């Protein structure tokens, strides 16, 4: 396809995506933190590459009006609170405090290494598809991070918001108050917190405190795992507990909720394999830059992620266990099928919202609207 014709079709495709986004926001009210008037907002439209920054709103109706009128491809608000969030000069805004934000992406996990299909579009943009099986280990990491925040750091459960990012991972936001000491913490303290979450520098003997004591008597007597234990052993027990729950082994999960005496042999038989797997998950891999940044822009819950056409979905802790990528996540399930034209060379079979697809440049498949919108938003297809 000549480049001029491709650009015309790409422009028509962006207009379609903008219309669909507008229709979504006409039906969906914005989800905002109670102190949104102190936050900076930002957006990117479907037709522009630059971001609209330094927006501020004083009412939810103003936000709703903006979303319907501009139908943004991406919509964010700041993790920080400012005295004057609408000023262009960042230093003049008057930084007050910031929430604690964590980002877990499936493509950064070790078990998902090499499972990403990289694609370059004809217009010179790069995108990628990750094997959707990787979303489950990312969801598990989010559960484990939640445990660290609540059980180890003492964060109140109601302060923690969990969300599917609309793409390939999850966000956890600890909504803090201006008066909270952690809200005013700088980058150094937040970096230390990231290292704690990642279990950086954790020594083996900390996980097995009984060995140095009991081996003198000739045989080890392990401290029974319990989620009530403090320190690294307690974290290990909580990881084991979550793994047992995820595997449907409620019998093992129950054994981890109390102090039960057992022999070394019995312990190894019951928990040896489970503990070995849990040790690999003690450190939760998070994007350090996101957590350390005290002025981070974060996706607004229920806003559209323009990389996929999927919304940012708030989740309960229980919902994370069975979370899968499917067409039901899309707000466009009731729309008619769409015929699209593949314009990029996709070198392998990819999975899109549960559908395995082998797509070649020039193909013109008719697909369910959620799948078609996903591929259009990725930039690998245009409206046929």
From TrEMBL:
What CDD domains does its record include?
AE_Prim_S
Organism superkingdom: Archaea
Q: Name one GO cellular component term.
A: DNA-directed RNA polymerase complex
Q: What's the short name of a Pfam family annotated to this entry?
A: DNA_primase_S
Catalytic residues?
A: 103, 105, 287
Q: Which SUPFAM superfamilies match?
A: Prim-pol domain
This enzyme's EC code(s):
2.7.7.-
The Gene Ontology biological process annotation of the record reads: DNA replication, synthesis of primer
| Keyword Metal-binding listed | yes
Classification via Gene3D superfamilies: DNA primase, PRIM domain
Per its UniProt entry, what is the enzyme's top EC class, as one word?
transferase
Q: InterPro entries in the record, alphabetically? A: DNA_primase_S (IPR002755), DNA_primase_ssu_euk/arc (IPR014052), DNA_primase_ssu_PriS (IPR023639)
Citing just one GO molecular function, the answer is: metal ion binding
Q: What's in the keyword line of the UniProt record?
A: DNA replication, DNA-directed RNA polymerase, Magnesium, Manganese, Metal-binding, Nucleotidyltransferase, Primosome, Transcription, Transferase
What this protein needs as a cofactor is: Mg(2+); Mn(2+)
Q: Which PANTHER family match?
A: DNA PRIMASE SMALL SUBUNIT (PTHR10536)
Q: Which family does it belong to?
A: Belongs to the eukaryotic-type primase small subunit family.
Question: What function does this protein fulfil?
Answer: RNA polymerase that catalyzes the synthesis of short RNA molecules used as primers for DNA polymerase during DNA replication. Catalytic subunit of DNA primase, an RNA polymerase that catalyzes the synthesis of short RNA molecules used as primers for DNA polymerase during DNA replication. The small subunit contains the primase catalytic core and has DNA synthesis activity on its own. Binding to the large subunit stabilizes and modulates the activity, increasing the rate of DNA synthesis while decreasing the length of the DNA fragments, and conferring RNA synthesis capability. The DNA polymerase activity may enable DNA primase to also catalyze primer extension after primer synthesis. May also play a role in DNA repair.
UniProt xrefs under HAMAP family: DNA_primase_sml_arc
How does this polypeptide assemble, per the annotation?
A: Heterodimer of a small subunit (PriS) and a large subunit (PriL).
Quote the protein name from its UniProt record: DNA primase small subunit PriS
Biological source species:
Pyrodictium occultum
What is the gene name?
priS
């Amino acid at each position: 396809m000549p480049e001029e014709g491709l650009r015309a079709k790409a422009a028509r495709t962006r207009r379609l995506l903008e219309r669909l986004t507008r229709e979504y926001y006409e039906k969906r009210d914005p989800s905002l933190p109670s102190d949104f008037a102190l936050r900076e907002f930002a957006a990117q439209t479907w037709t522009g590459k630059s971001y609209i920054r330094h927006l501020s709103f004083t009412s939810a109706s103003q936000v709703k009006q903006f979303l319907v009128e501009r139908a943004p491809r991406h919509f964010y608000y700041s993790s920080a609170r400012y005295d004057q969030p609408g000023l262009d000069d960042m230093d003049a805004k008057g930084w007050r405090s910031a929430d604690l934000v964590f980002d877990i992406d499936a493509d950064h996990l070790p078990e998902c290494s090499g499972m990403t299909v990289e694609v370059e579009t004809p217009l010179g943009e790069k995108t990628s598809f990750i094997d959707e099986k990787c979303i489950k280990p990312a969801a598990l990491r989010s559960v484990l991070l939640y445990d660290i925040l609540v059980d180890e750091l003492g964060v109140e459960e109601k302060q923690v918001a969990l969300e599917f990012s609309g793409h390939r991972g999850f966000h956890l936001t600890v909504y803090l108050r201006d008066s909270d000491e952690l809200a005013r913490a700088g980058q150094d303290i937040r970096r230390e917190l990231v290292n704690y979450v990642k279990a950086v520098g954790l020594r083996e003997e900390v996980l097995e405190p009984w060995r140095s004591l009991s081996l003198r008597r000739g045989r080890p007597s392990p401290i029974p795992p319990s989620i009530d234990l403090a320190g690294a052993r307690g974290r290990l027990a909580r990881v084991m507990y979550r793994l047992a729950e995820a595997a449907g082994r409620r019998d093992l999960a129950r054994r981890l909720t109390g102090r039960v005496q057992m022999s070394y042999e019995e312990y190894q038989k019951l928990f040896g394999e489970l503990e070995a797997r849990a040790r690999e998950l003690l450190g939760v891999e998070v994007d350090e830059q996101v957590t350390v940044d005290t002025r981070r822009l974060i996706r607004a819950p229920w806003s559209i992620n323009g990389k996929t056409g999927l919304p940012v979905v708030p989740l309960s802790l229980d919902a994370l266990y069975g979370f899968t990528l499917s067409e039901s996540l899309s707000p466009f399930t009731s729309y008619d099928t769409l015929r699209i034209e593949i314009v990029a060379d996709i070198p392998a079979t990819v999975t899109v919202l549960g559908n395995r697809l082998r797509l070649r440049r020039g193909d013109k498949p008719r697909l369910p609207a959620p799948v078609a919108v996903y591929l259009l938003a990725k930039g690998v297809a245009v409206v046929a």
